[in-house]
Design brief:
With 333 residues, this protein is of the alpha/beta class. The chain contains 10 helices and 13 strands. The strands form 2 sheets. The protein has an 8-stranded mixed β-sheet. Helix 5 links the parallel strand 4 and strand 5. The two termini are 38 Å apart.
């Protein structure tokens, strides 16, 4: 008997690596094991328009089971669906695929994953949770109709937590607060995060709808707030302040091409919003922040610390270069 929870956790762990980077798609992970329970692959959806987690896992498992490496690294979803159908027929008849989210059953920017899994004849599909998007749901029924055993939900609470941002922004907006600190809690005084953490933030900036920044942070740090580390588009910026006249227009963020800058007194009502600021901004937006991503750098120094009083629930943690990366949610959220 397979340890379904163990393999689903492998898929979850991989999916968290791309949390929010898949916007406007949900984060999804997949793992494949052979008939004896030997892991063949673990993969995750990486960005909207690219192959879904199931397809990448099948691609990698196919490469491991054969001597054909011509699909290695391919990220053309349509080509992968077409070639895997042609080359891998019968290869997975004893295999099980674990997916954190019900395989999609519709054709959008990419073909339906449920159709590919059914056509390849997997013995078993284990699902973490159902798809909350009615346009994409129905994959489990498609697979059962093809004679494939479907099990689940497995690790449902963790799988639903993974897609919480997707559910929230489908209903309006999702708000993430990004904060970086040293081991002793200092949040100011120049660069804190390592380059890997900064590159992740710059990548996320290319995905979001709006970057909201506190007025005091703009005045003190004079930031650029672009995505230069990854060569991506700079996000539109909303400056959270009651005194726009106090903001110096020569601050670098105003000179970034193709960017809109607005002055606001409240959060945008729709989309994926990332907030960058200090304790004042976090306190002012109390109750409106959905999650926080916290980078903790492994050194101490003198400076200002965030001293707000709030309890958090730890959703996920991982290393990001030299830093610790924590995904947090307020216990009252």
């Amino acid at each position: 008997m397979f340890d379904d929870a163990f393999y689903m956790r492998l898929a979850l762990q991989e999916a968290w690596r791309y949390q929010l980077l898949t916007y406007p798609n949900p984060a999804v992970g997949a793992a494949i094991v052979d008939g004896s329970g030997r892991p063949l692959s673990v993969a995750a959806h990486k960005e909207a328009g690219g192959p879904h987690a199931e397809v990448l896992a099948i691609r990698d498992a196919y490469g491991r089971l054969t001597t054909d490496g011509s699909l290695d690294g391919c990220d053309d979803a349509h080509r992968l669906h077409r070639e895997l159908r042609r080359r891998a027929a019968g290869l997975f008849r004893d295999a099980t695929i674990y997916v954190t989210l019900e395989p999609c059953s519709h054709r959008g920017k990419t073909p339906a994953c449920a159709d590919l899994i059914a056509d390849l004849g997997f013995r078993r599909v284990v699902i973490g949770t159902g798809d909350p998007n009615p346009e994409a749901a129905g994959g489990a029924g498609r697979l059962e109709g093809a004679g494939i055993e479907v099990a689940g939900p497995i690790e449902r609470e963790a799988c639903e937590r993974l897609i919480e941002p997707f559910v929230k922004w489908r209903n309006g907006r999702f708000v993430l607060f990004k904060l970086a600190q040293t081991l002793n809690g200092v949040i100011d005084g120049g660069t804190i995060s390592c380059e890997a953490s900064r590159r992740w933030v710059h990548t996320l900036r290319t995905r979001i709808d709006t970057l909201l920044i506190g007025g005091n942070t703009v005045r003190c740090d004079r930031p650029r707030l672009d995505s230069r580390l990854v060569g991506g588009r700079a996000p539109d910026v909303a400056i959270f302040t009651e005194d726009p006249a106090s903001i110096d227009r020569t601050i670098p963020l105003f000179s970034v091409p193709d960017r809109r800058v607005a002055f606001v007194r409240e959060l945008p009502t729709r989309g994926l919003v990332m907030v960058e600021g200090g304790g004042g901004t976090l306190g002012a937006l109390e109750g409106q922040i959905d999650w926080m991503v916290l980078f903790i750098a492994p050194f101490v120094k003198e400076g200002t610390c965030y001293n707000g009083g709030k309890n958090f629930k730890l959703l996920h943690q991982r290393s990001m270069g030299a830093d610790a990366m924590l995904w947090l949610k307020g216990n009252d959220g």
